[in-house]
Amino acid sequence: MPTDIELPGPIVVVGPPGAGKTTVGQALAAHLGMEFRDTDADIVATAGKPISDIFVDDGEEHFRALEREAVAVAVAEHQGVVALGGGAVLSEATRALLANVTVVYLDVDLSEAVKRVELDRGRPLLAVNPRATLRGLLEQRRPLYREVATLEVDTTGREVADLVAQISAAVARRRVDVGGEQPYPVIIGPGGSSDIIEYLGQATRVAIVYTASVSERAELVARAVNSRVAPVMLEVPDAEDGKTIAIAQQCWEALGTEGFTRSDLIIGVGGGAVTDLAGFVAASWLRGVAVVHVPTSLLGMVDAAVGGKTGVNTSAGKNLVGAFHPPRAVLCDTDSLLTLPTPDLAAGLAEVVKAGFISDPRILDLIEADPKAALDPGNAVMAELIERAIAVKARVVEADLREGGLRAILNYGHTFAHAIEKVENYRWRHGDAVAVGMVYAAHLGALTGRADLVERTTSVLSALGLPVSYQGGRWDDLSEAMRIDKKALGSTLRFVLLEDLAAPVIVADVSAEHRAAAYERVSE
Ligand SMILES: NC(=O)c1ccc[n+]([C@@H]2O[C@H](COP(=O)([O-])OP(=O)(O)OC[C@H]3O[C@@H](n4cnc5c(N)ncnc54)[C@H](O)[C@@H]3O)[C@@H](O)[C@H]2O)c1
Ligand SMILES: O=C(O)C(=O)C[C@@H](O)[C@H](O)[C@H](O)COP(=O)(O)O
Predict the structure, then answer these.
(1) Which CA distances in Å does 72 have to 14, 101, 145, 214, 470?
(2) How many angstroms separate the Cα of 509 from the Cα of each of 441, 445, 492, 494?
(3) Does the beta carbon of 319 sit less than 6 angstroms from any atom of ligand 2?
(4) CB neighbour list of residue 352: distance below 8 Å, 6 or more residues apart
(5) From ligand 1's centre to the CA of 402, what distance in Å?
(6) Which residues partner with 174 through β-bridges?
(7) C-beta separation of 34 from 9 below 8 A
(8) What ligand has the least distance to the C-alpha of 273?
(9) Is the pLDDT of residue 3 over 70?
(10) Among 111, 391, 438, 476, which is 20 to 30 Å from 334 by CA?
């Protein structure tokens, strides 16, 4: 995948002897393409003798002072992975050096720690009776490791590769570049929203559009912005209630009052509804000011905030008023996902599944292998899914921003989904509607002689707890709602169907009989 890894500074690895700081630290550094550094090795180089000799000749206190100095230098200079000696956290001054650093605490249970250190007898504090000594060390130091840790990982009985995948997903930021006429980065990873300061440009005024549900996230962004400009906070109604022309109008009024000019900036902090609205306000104010999206929902990260489609709903249908307006950057702070309710995580995964069917079947394999992991924001599987889905969208929108052709494939399942949303007065989650819409499209595909992906579609969506059917007896309303679809040409409806997995086509000749028959099959 065409992605880079960005680190928010060095990653420091701490933990007791036998936890695997060197082995895991080196493997993590290799995986991230970074350098590995070990403060014990730095101390040996500075002192010109082995650590055991420093303990014997100069005493532990002297060693801790050398260690403090080595940690201070490493944290200030190094951008890779730094492993500290097991006792480094004993010094309060050393712990203070770790206050604003990403620290991974590797833990291990006593028996496995004993086994591991018995293979490595060169440790001064473990020369005699390692089991009792280790037990004492673990009891004394565990609270101190926890005090400095950003992430705690139990290494007992686990493979190094598995640990590396978990840690890198949890601490490293990834980047997907969206190319095309107006390129921009999508940054993915924990804590990413604080990067906002890099994307303020020349702005002397900044407006943050957000909903009450994510006020803490908006506050974090506001604090970061505030070091340059005091932002105007524009709280809007939640979800689709905020995606209206009336709310856009209120935002325009606020921008007018604040005297927003073309060099100023709008930031959307929230789910897809907020980023669609904020993007539309930015696209229309003075015919276009910059917008940075900080999506807080999974669906916002993998789809809505990326690609430059912005808009609001009207009484005639979903997203019928809008503009193509690419953002300056998209900051996917995956810490946000920790507060997102599971049904909203699942709804976001519906768009990820879509990316799997239209372009990247590895997504489907990953979800089918472990649907629970796919729904777990702390799991490396979810991190990989986010990145893969964004990469699919990036490759499509950079080739066809204004949906002249290819981009329509991103609408797979959406003709029926948007009809459900309209008929349900926008009270259905978008992702839930897309799930049912994909089952409908799979039936249409099978009915029209293409690949039969109905079983795979329903099973992968059901595994995520997503709906796969819709109530019967609503065909007239639904087919009326489907008439106003942005893919339609004149009175001809066009559907995205799959010739096969990852082989989408845009089809204009789906008969009324097939459309109605697919509804019968998807209805409960
Ligand atoms: N522009 C595009 O390309 C594009 C693509 C896909 C979807 N969309 C649009 O995106 C919208 C759907 O996005 P969505 O699923 O994010 O819905 P949403 O914006 O309505 O958010 C869903 C719910 O989650 C809450 N929420 C968001 N982040 C949270 C967090 N971190 N913690 C707790 N609660 C949180 C919201 O307040 C809301 O109640 C639809 O309007 C859809 O049309 C646009
Ligand atoms: O980005 C696109 O293009 C998409 O179609 C992505 C869809 O997942 C998304 O729901 C989008 O908002 C639908 O666009 P619309 O043009 O059908 O309103």
Answers:
(1) 15, 11, 17, 36, 60
(2) 14, 12, 8, 7
(3) yes
(4) 298, 302, 363, 367, 374, 385, 386, 388, 389
(5) 22
(6) 5, 188
(7) no
(8) 1
(9) no
(10) 438
Q: Give the closest ligand to the alpha carbon of residue 321.
A: 2
- Indicate if ligand 2 lies below 6 Å from the C-beta of 309: yes
Q: Does any ligand 1 atom lie closer than 6 A to the CB of residue 360?
A: no
Compute the distance between CA of residue 362 and CA of residue 10 in angstroms, rounded to an integer: 31
The rounded Cα 369 to chain-centroid distance in angstroms is 20
Chain-centroid distance, C-alpha 406: 25
Nearest to 466 by CA among 363, 351, 355: 351
Q: What is the pLDDT of residues 98-149, one digit of tens each?
A: 998 999 999 999 999 888 887 665 565 566 677 888 899 899 999 999 999 9
Contact 230, 205 (CB under 8 A): no
Cα(66) to ligand 2 centroid in Å equals 58
Q: Which H or E run includes 497? A: strand 495-500
**Of the candidates 83, 85, 77, which has an alpha carbon nearest to the alpha carbon of residue 27?**
83
Burial-class residue 51 by CB neighbours within 10 Å (0-12, 13-18, 19+).
Answer: buried
CA of 298 to the centre of ligand 1 (A): 8
Residue 242 annotated as lining a ligand binding site: yes
Instruction: Report the distance separating Cα 346 and Cα 342, nearest Å.
Output: 6
**Does the pLDDT at position 57 exceed 90?**
yes
The residue whose CB lies within 8 Å of the most ligand 1 atoms, and thus the one to mutate among 299, 333, 382, is 299
- The pair phi, psi for residue 322, each rounded to 5°, is 180, -170
Give 380's pLDDT tier (boundaries 50, 70, 90): confident
The token pair at 242 is: 């905020």
Q: Are strands 184-189 and 173-178 parallel, antiparallel or unpaired?
A: antiparallel
What is the rounded CA–CA span in Å between residue 394 and residue 303? 9
Instruction: Indicate whether this complex's ipTM tops 0.95.
Output: yes
Rounded to two decimals, what is the model's pTM? Answer: 0.86
418 is in an annotated binding site: no
- Does residue 307's CB lie within 6 angstroms of at least one atom of ligand 2? yes
User: Which string of b and e fits 505-524 if b means at least 16 CB within 10 Å?
Assistant: eebeebeeebbeebbeebbe
Q: Which has the closest alpha carbon to 375: 331, 425, 338?
A: 338
Of the candidates 15, 11, 13, 18, which has an alpha carbon nearest to the alpha carbon of residue 141? Answer: 15
Q: Which residues contact 335 (CB under 8 A, 6 or more apart)?
A: 190, 191, 193
173-178: strand order across its sheet: 3-6, 173-178, 184-189, 329-333, 290-295, 265-270, 206-210, 232-235
In the block, residue with structure tokens 């680190």 = 7
